[in-house]
Amino acid sequence: MPTIEIVGKPVAWQRARVNHQTRVHFKSVEMASWQRLVGLFARQAMAGTRPFSGPVSVDLLVLLLPPQSWSAKRRERAVGGYELPATRPDVDNYCKAILDALNNIGYVDDAQVVFLHIAKRYGLENRVSVTWQEVVANGS
Q1: Residue 55, helix vs strand vs coil
Q2: Predicted local distance difference test score (pLDDT) of residue 65
Q3: CA proximity to 98, closest of 136, 135, 59
Q4: Is 4 within 8 Å of 106 (Cβ atoms)?
Q5: Contacts 24+ apart (CB under 8 A), 44-49
Q6: For residue 89, is the peptide bond before it cis, meaning its omega torsion is within 30 degrees of 0?
Q7: Could you tell me if 110 and 103 are in contact, meaning their C-beta atoms sit under 8 angstroms apart?
Q8: pTM for this one?
Q9: Above 80 in pLDDT, residue 112?
């Protein structure tokens, strides 16, 4: 079961931009760099094995630092789980950027993801934890 931990500010998926003169679609530099970093860690976690080809389950945890403007007491409560980051970027946009980055590395295509657990919480550092595994249908 490959797992990656990426310390640093996570980047949420952003709509591709268009150069209207050339009609070329492109990703932002920030998102492209983030996805390369996720891919690098994923390649290390896969340790040379082939991407999974069957159904996949993914667990994703996004930890964000509480705002500096908050009091120390409020920051402590947030890290303790008493306050949750119900703010932008949306949790599904973090997920989309990471699932796309794992294509052809952790699995052939993110369409294979059949189970997905995502959480966005406050933490002591900005960090993302991703675990994925191939799953087998139980026949029911």
Answers
A1: coil
A2: 97
A3: 59
A4: no
A5: 44/4, 45/2, 45/3, 45/4, 45/106, 46/2, 46/105, 46/106
A6: yes
A7: yes
A8: 0.88
A9: yes
**What type of residue sits at position 9?**
K
Rounded distance between C-alpha atoms, residue 22 and residue 84, angstroms: 43
Tell me the chain's radius of gyration from C-alpha atoms. Answer: 17
User: How big is the chain, counted in residues?
Assistant: 140
Average pLDDT over residues 65-78: 98
Q: Are 68 and 12 in contact (CB under 8 A)?
A: no
Q: Are 4 and 41 in contact (CB under 8 A)?
A: yes
Q: Which residue, 65, 68, 76, 74, is CA-closest to 120?
A: 65
Q: Is the pLDDT of residue 37 over 80?
A: yes
The answer, yes or no, to whether residue 79 has pLDDT greater than 60, is yes
Task: Give the C-alpha separation, 118 to 104, whole Å.
Answer: 21
Cα–Cα distance between 63 and 126 in angstroms, integer? 5
The sign one gets for the Cα dihedral 28, 109, 88, 67 is: negative
Cβ pair 93, 116 in contact under 8 A: no
Pairing of strands 56-64, 113-122: parallel
Alpha-helical segments (H) within the chain = 29-46, 72-79, 91-101
Q: Report yes or no: 131 and 59 within 8 Å, Cβ to Cβ.
A: yes
